[in-house]
Amino acid sequence: MEHGGQVRLRTIAREWGRIGLVGFGGPPAHILLLRRLCVERRGWLDPAEFEDGIATTNLLPGPASTQLAIFTAWRLRGTPGALVGGLCFIAPGLVLILALSALFLAGHPPLWVLGAADGAGAAVPAVAVQAAAALVPGSLGRASAGAADGTDRVRGGRARWYGYALAGAGAALLTGPWLVLVVVATGLAEVAVRSRGRRTPRPGLPDATARDDAGAVGAAGDGSDADDAGGPPPGGGRRGTLPLLAAVPAVGGLGGLGALAWVAFKVGALSYGGGFVIIPLMRDDAVHRYHWMTDGQFLNAVALGQVTPGPVVHTVSAVGYAAAGTLGGLLAAAVAFGPSFLFVILGARHFGRLRADLRVQDFLTGAGPAVIGAIAGSALPLAASLAHGWQWGVLAAALAGLTVARRGAVGALLVAGALGVVAALAGLPVA
């Protein structure tokens, strides 16, 4: 510690800004860098406290790794530290994505830019498939964990998991902004099933024993059975809950900056996990409801959010730029990230009670597979928006690289963009 036991704000600004600048790769990279800084190199937090921070921020709506960055800075210097750390973590990626949006979403970009955009966009459906696949083991294990007291209950938990996932996929394909109703319904259904199971004693056991065992299962599920969308953190599986898309349909009558603020608010305050979890809803608003961008431009925005450092939720800034230029991008970022600061600054003292609530855990256990289904389902309309035959070859190559060779999403998008440049220079059609 510095300055009478406190970490200086300028130290927080420097270190969190560095992480925001070099944090390519999404939540896994952010968690690794924050752990190395706060636990291993500086010793500001002990390992258990850091892991608890990961688990708790995964319960909150909004981008989890951003909230972890805000929370760790809050632990060091309270509200001033949270504000400085969070802003410095977000700023580098925001500046970069706005600059790239100006280049890629311009009215008449150079030929090589068009090729790079079409190539990277072609790989986006493959990245969505990878994102969904990465969530399956932890989510399916979580569904079984709470039913570990009997084979029938394990089978029932798995059967519900598949049903929830299919419902989410269907909702992503068919319902647009009403997807939230399906996700919320699956969460509430799981709460009802598990609550009834806790009230019903198992054969040969008194009521109290059944309740006690259920509580023990819930406590274990809180820590070790749910890997997040970002993949495992350093030193073990990332504890917490699966991402949950929790947004409501767009408010009728909004237009212009009001509509943009509403879309960004849904991303930041009413969605869990960020990244590809929010794509089905954002696509419907940005492309079909408000017509801020074409399908191809939306693919470009998603790719930009993946290849820039810092939070992948920066995608909403690219959407904001398409809607209203630089002002729109800044507004979208402010509205999307604002709730994360409020959740941590106002609620950090109560995080322990949130983690201990079994109903929260049950809800996320049911809603998680619906979200996975929605992410996987979003790959189909994204792929259908590809306009040129050569893009399907890039998509196939990206899918093989991500799922068979297990390459990272950032590298796959960069290679796909390079292939797009080659295609454009070779005279193949580009958008």
From TrEMBL:
Highest taxon of the lineage: Bacteria
Transmembrane intervals: 82-106, 161-189, 330-351, 363-383, 412-430
InterPro entries for the chain: Chr_Tranpt_l_chain, CHR_Transporter, Chromate_transpt
Key words of the record: Cell membrane, Membrane, Transmembrane, Transmembrane helix
Entry's localization field: Cell membrane
Membrane topology qualifier: Multi-pass membrane protein
One GO cellular component term: plasma membrane
UniProt keyword Cell membrane, yes or no: yes
Region (Disordered): 196-238
An MF annotation (GO) of this entry: chromate transmembrane transporter activity
Main location: membrane
Family per similarity comment: Belongs to the chromate ion transporter (CHR) (TC 2.A.51) family.
Name of the molecule in the record: Chromate transporter
